[in-house]
Design brief:
Keywords: Cytoplasm, Nucleus. With about 300 residues, the protein is an all-alpha fold. It contains 9 helices and 2 strands. The chain has a two-stranded antiparallel sheet.
Length: about 300
């Protein structure tokens, strides 16, 4: 007598399924393509972010080299010498190439999205541009002119945005370069670089028909310009402007110390100049300049 199989039923293996039987498969998730799109966008975002950060560092390095070359200048309101122009032009060209390479990544909303990644380079570029403009004209380059100069470097990718905060912070940093420029001139030439009053301006004021009082046009030296800059920069109130306000508060004290150093150097030259050896340079180690890096 044959006994019945009372054990658990055996599962059919996949190989035992006849070929004519079709297995039911789950349909693809409707969210899969959506998340693949998100992944692509995130990858592109990180690539743009890395490109902007690298370009910012390279722009900063090239701008510093331009400033080092410009510090060899000893006069204001005069054309930059051909030798210094030649030495710095290669770095201006490098900066233009770097901006052209990332200009497509900084269009529309992305110009604000990646502002913290490029702000360090923009500020250093502004410092070099403002310093050279001052040496050539003894004037502070306007925001509109600075925007135009940077926009020209964007190339086919479009203009790169220069925010007002990057412009202002670059001007703050430029004060430190004017301090070095002025103190070096005192040490090597015994006086601050000064521009003579324009006689044509004085004559035009004298011939003016209106009887309004005219300010007498006088010679201007670097310290006069530094003091004027200090007055206007100290009037800024950015305490409620988040990160920009914090950057301003850090740079404000450094700017004030820079102006004081030029004042002290000039006072020392006038009061005790005869007691100091030729080529004396004041100690600049106190109150080191603080750098604010973009992230």
């Amino acid at each position: 007598m044959t006994m019945a199989n009372t054990g658990p039923p055996q599962k059919r293996r996949k190989a035992d399924v006849p070929h004519h039987v079709t297995m039911d498969t789950k349909p693809a998730s409707p969210f899969l393509s959506m998340f693949e799109t998100f992944r692509t966008e995130l990858d592109e975002h990180h690539d743009r972010r890395e490109r902007c950060m690298k370009a910012s560092k390279d722009i900063t390095a090239a701008s510093k080299k331009i400033i080092f070359a410009l510090q060899r200048t000893r006069q204001v309101k005069q054309p930059i010498t051909p030798k210094i122009q030649k030495d710095s032009q290669q770095y201006w060209d490098a900066i233009a190439k770097l901006y052209a390479g990332i200009s497509r990544d900084l269009q529309g909303l992305d110009s604000y999205r990646y502002n913290r990644q490029i702000t360090g380079g923009n500020q250093e570029f502004m410092e070099a541009l403002t310093f050279q403009h001052y040496l050539e004209t003894q004037e502070l380059i306007s925001y509109d002119e600075a925007v135009k100069r940077l926009a020209q470097l964007g190339g086919e990718g479009g203009a790169v945005l220069l925010t007002p905060s990057d412009y202002i912070l670059g001007v703050f940093d430029m004060v430190g370069e004017l301090m070095r420029f002025g103190i070096t001139a005192i040490a090597t030439g015994g006086q601050l670089p000064t521009s003579k009053a324009d006689p044509d301006v004085q004559m035009a004021d004298a011939d003016a028909e209106d009887s309004a009082p005219k300010l007498e046009v006088e010679d201007r030296d670097v310290l006069t310009d530094l003091r004027n800059l200090r007055i206007h920069l100290e009037a800024l109130d950015a305490s409620t402007d988040g990160a920009f306000g914090r950057d301003i508060s850090k740079k404000m004290g450094v700017m004030q110390v820079c102006v004081q150093k030029v004042e002290n150097a000039l006072y020392g030259l006038i009061v005790r100049g005869s007691e100091r050896p030729k080529g004396w340079v004041p100690d600049l180690s106190t109150g080191p300049r603080e750098e604010i890096e973009g992230y």
